[in-house]
Amino acid sequence: MAKKETKQNFLGGAAILAAAVAVVKLIGAIFKIPLTNIIGAEGMTHFNTSYKIYNLLLTISTAGLPLALSRLVSEANALGRENEKRRIFHVALGLFFLLGLSGSLIMFFGTEPLAELMNNSLAFYAIRALSPAVFCVCLMSAMRGYTQGQGNMKPTAVSQILEALCKLVVGLTLAVVLLRQGCGVEVGAAGGIFGVTVGTAASLIFLSLYLLRRRSHTPGADIAPSSGRLLKRLLVIGIPITLGSSGMSLISLIDQSVAMGRLQDALGMSEKAAAALYGQYTFSENLFNLPSSFVYPVTMSLIPAVAAALAQQDHSRVSKLVSSSFRLIATLVIPAGVGLSVLAGPILLMLYPSQHADAVAATYHLQLLGVACIFVCLMVLTNAILQSHGRERIPIFTIIAGGLVKISMNYVLIGNPDINIKGAPISTLCCYVVIAGLNLFFVYRTLEEKPSYWGLFFKPALASVIMGLGARISYLFCNGALSSRMGEYAGNALATLAGVGVGVAVYVILIPLLGILTADDLKNLRGGDKISRILHLK
Question: What parts of the sequence cross the membrane (predicted)?
Fold first, then answer.
């Protein structure tokens, strides 16, 4: 590979990935919102069933190893060990090839038993349509981990956007065409999710060409360790992270299987009726996952940056990186979670006009999941902090603890006829509160300079509550004035946008007033000086 890779500082790298994630999530919303309106609640249950199976296989194959790869490459890069850096990548690429191929074959040939295991046999078509994506994403993960380990986030960002665009165009087109041909919603869901497969293939081609064009055969001065030794290091670091990450994917998979099973067994619903009811929960899940996606760019930049600092024994740098991460996440995700909660109903009605009854029913889910997403984001960040300090095993146990809470509560609550599917968001909230709380405790015990959680979270939380009140009041006022004149949908949509606008304005004003961020917090962020001037930060 080329000796001179583009370098970005930690926050600059996070900014590039965050911008890419913002674009990807916007495209994802443009994809999932119309797809939900096209295939409905039942179709989205089939879509999500296949995606959760895919996500588990993908997590087992790639969750820890790309982070381990990124960490090892970052350490080698910081020490100028070019030959070691290249060999790490080649070893990882071979390993990922085998894992990806195995995952795709399991998903393709095991489609029927997997669908039955999920108590959703109609998800058969969607599961098979998504199976090739496991292979593509595994190879992509090796390539992304290699470039990120060198501090170059741009290839990952571009490949993510390319993947999302292909998914949007191909997925929506196939879903519409198949339903117009008279196919059922289960086939329409398969068409929609096949867009994901096409997107991953396109992204893999891009990354392959990028690395081929920038490869270098010039040898370094260092003597690289053997491939076997490097493979062992990858596995030692990656397996505990994989176990922790795959634990949550496995729990999510079991959770849906339990929910579908309880709706059918305890409440006597048919498979189609259970899928339609569970689909209401997926309406809110789509929005619930948005805030956490903005945490991953920070963690992807944080882990190699902390690893490099620890390799150089720069503990002061480590403390600054961790503190900056906490401040950024608290400032972004707490208002996002509060906003989703206070405007849950209006947002769902605005996004899903053709699924009005299901959107109304999903309001309760999103009100709870809005709060839950704050704890999800804290879980993701604290996992990364613990992993970067070599404490990969701790998240395994905290996730198991939260997962047991979630599955047991789901079994009891969903089986209650008076609660049924409303038990799902309750168990989700309790699950992530447990995990985040335990993680925060262990992070406090791990860091040499102890963080002040009160100082980090109180001001963003206070500003978010004020913001939420402003957003809700403005929505109620505007909706009352507009709905009678413009119709229910148009009035609600404009009032919702007004509420969001007022909420954002209130929060932006409160940032400098309450001292939530300072100019020093943003000085390493790309465009940070400009943002500081706009917000009048000192």
Answer: 12-31, 51-69, 89-110, 122-143, 164-181, 187-212, 233-254, 294-311, 332-352, 364-382, 394-414, 426-444, 456-477, 489-517
Q: Name the DSSP class of 478.
A: H
End-to-end CA gap in the chain: 42
CB 352 within 8 A of CB 33: yes
User: Is 193 among the domain residues?
Assistant: yes
C-alpha dihedral, 6 to 7 to 12 to 16, nearest 10°? 30
Residue in the structure block whose two tokens are 């978010």: 464
- Give tens-digit pLDDT for 90-133: 888 888 899 889 989 999 999 999 999 999 999 999 999 999 99
- Whether 130 contacts 194, CB under 8 Å: yes
User: In which residue are the tokens 């999530």 written?
Assistant: 25
DSSP state of 524: T
CA distance 294 to 306: 19
For residue 412, what are the contacts with CB-CB under 8 A and spacing of at least 6?
423
| 413-465 pLDDT tens trace | 999 999 999 999 999 999 999 999 999 999 998 887 787 888 889 999 999 99
Model pLDDT for residues 316-359, shown as the tens digit of each residue: 777 777 877 888 888 889 999 999 999 999 999 999 998 889 99
Positive or negative: CA dihedral 436, 438, 441, 445: negative
CA atoms within 13 A on the CB side of 529: 0
Q: Considering the domain boundaries, does residue 526 fall inside one?
A: no
- Integer-rounded Cα radius of gyration of the chain: 23
With 0-12 / 13-18 / 19 or more C-beta atoms within 10 angstroms meaning exposed / middle / buried, residue 189 is buried
Q: Which residues contact residue 311 at a Cβ distance below 8 angstroms, ignoring those fewer than 6 apart?
A: 74, 75, 78, 79
The domain of 230 spans 10-451
Mean model confidence pLDDT for the chain: 85
Q: Name the residue type at position 202.
A: A
Closest C-alpha among 200, 215, 100 to residue 159: 200
Query: Does residue 166 contact residue 92 with C-beta atoms inside 8 Å?
Result: no
Spatial distance between the Cα atoms of 355 and 41, rounded to a whole number of angstroms: 8
Would you mind telling me the total number of residues written for the chain in this entry?
538
CB-CB contact of 492 with 483 (8 Å): yes
325 within some domain: yes
Total domain count, the chain: 1
Lowest mean pLDDT among 300-304, 429-433, 481-485: 300-304
Cβ 495 vs Cβ 475: under 8 Å: yes
Structure tokens at 142: 């090796």
Is 350 within a domain?
yes
